[in-house]
């Protein structure tokens, strides 16, 4: 449709994207072959058949084991480069991309290997696609705060390649305050801060309150349960906090797109953005997410433009670079 073509062509920033969540089955096979790794599945269809998610936990149970095909810096480069090419084809002119170093260092791949490979793709995207990209280091919240702090220390020599830090993985029993000290140190080091507040978690609204009032984040990933507390919505608006929503991902991990919540926050004047989260697993890149939300919620071109403008306003681009886009 015309609106779909418009959504894909609209220049936009993507702010909620897990690089490890862009591992398409075809690339998984290629990397497994290159690294001499045997996989349980032999066809793309067999791999896709394992993508039977009912919640965040069942997704994560497929997401982490797949990463073992990522071994050398070249593998991390190839993963990020494949994503950046697809993103550029869907209108992305700037991407702030999460990576999960502990999912690799925890199985013996050095931090330097991971970030060197990803960084090479970032530089290549600027050179060959003319788009900018940044890396956001995510800590895995189901591991200890001490391990997160050690990972932050390991990252400090690469500070120039990392724009911010985030928090992902299983939120249950792993509240934001568990990482208060790590995030305070990251802030003191000059990193921007964001944290996942996943959809419909036990204690979602308390976690959202904590990330705003205690952690002092610059953005919230997902976070749409904030609709439950109008006073927090007002506070988020006053602070200009960005919300990185992921409609297609929501449909997988909760069986609902949460479009009412997304649109209500957008119309309340919050800096709501639309993103793809883990596109290889959920089957939609960022333009597809704009289209899915537009179709489901009956949005028009003006709403999509507002979402795209929000994506630059909620980005961590410098003011002068931001001015190139809006
Ligand atoms: N939530 C939590 N952890 C994740 C996600 C997510 O959406 N994607 C990859 N790791
Ligand atoms: Zn996410």
From TrEMBL:
Annotated substrate binding sites: 278
Cofactor(s), by name: Zn(2+)
Cross-referenced SUPFAM superfamilies: Metallo-dependent hydrolases (SSF51556)
Reaction(s) the record says it catalyses: adenine + H2O + H(+) = hypoxanthine + NH4(+)
Co-factor binding comment: Binds 1 zinc ion per subunit.
Pfam families (alphabetical): A_deaminase (PF00962)
One GO term (biological process): adenine catabolic process
Important for catalytic activity (site feature) positions: 222
Described purpose of this protein according to its UniProt entry: Catalyzes the hydrolytic deamination of adenine to hypoxanthine. Plays an important role in the purine salvage pathway and in nitrogen catabolism.
Gene3D superfamilies given in the database record: Metal-dependent hydrolases
Protein name (Swiss-Prot/TrEMBL): Adenine deaminase
Family classification: Belongs to the metallo-dependent hydrolases superfamily. Adenosine and AMP deaminases family. Adenine deaminase type 2 subfamily.
Keywords annotated in UniProt: Hydrolase, Metal-binding, Nucleotide metabolism, Zinc
Gene Ontology CC annotation, any one: cytosol
Adenosine deaminase domain location: 11-326
Record organism: Microbacterium lemovicicum
């Amino acid at each position: 449709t015309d609106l779909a073509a418009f959504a894909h062509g609209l220049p936009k920033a993507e702010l909620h994207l897990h690089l490890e969540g862009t591992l398409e089955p075809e690339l998984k096979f290629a990397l497994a072959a290159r690294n001499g790794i045997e996989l349980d599945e032999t066809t793309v269809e067999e791999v896709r058949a394992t993508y039977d998610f009912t919640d965040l936990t069942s997704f994560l149970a497929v997401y982490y084991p797949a990463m073992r095909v990522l071994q050398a810096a070249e593998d991390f480069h190839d993963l990020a480069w494949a994503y950046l090419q697809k993103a550029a084809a869907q209108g992305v002119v700037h991407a702030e991309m999460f990576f999960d170093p502990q999912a690799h260092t925890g199985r013996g791949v050095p931090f330097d290997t991971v970030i060197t490979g990803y960084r090479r793709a970032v530089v290549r995207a600027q050179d060959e696609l003319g788009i900018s990209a940044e890396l956001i280091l995510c800590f895995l919240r189901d591991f200890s705060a001490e391990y997160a702090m050690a990972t932050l220390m390991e990252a400090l020599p690469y500070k120039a390649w990392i724009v911010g830090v985030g928090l992902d993985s299983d939120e249950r029993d792993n509240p934001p305050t568990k990482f208060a000290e790590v995030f305070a140190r990251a802030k003191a080091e000059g990193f921007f801060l964001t944290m996942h507040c996943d959809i419909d978690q036990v204690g979602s609204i308390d976690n959202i309150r904590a990330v705003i009032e205690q952690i002092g984040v610059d953005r919230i990933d997902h976070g749409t349960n904030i609709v439950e507390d109008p006073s927090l919505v007002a506070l988020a608006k006053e602070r200009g906090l960005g919300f990185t929503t992921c409609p297609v991902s929501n449909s997988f991990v909760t069986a609902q797109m949460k479009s009412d919540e997304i649109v209500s926050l957008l119309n309340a004047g919050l800096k709501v953005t639309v993103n793809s989260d883990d596109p290889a697993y959920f089957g939609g890149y960022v333009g597809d997410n704009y289209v899915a939300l537009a179709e489901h919620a009956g949005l028009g071109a003006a709403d999509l433009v507002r979402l795209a403008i929000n994506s630059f306003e909620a980005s961590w681009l410098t003011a002068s670079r931001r001015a190139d886009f809006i």
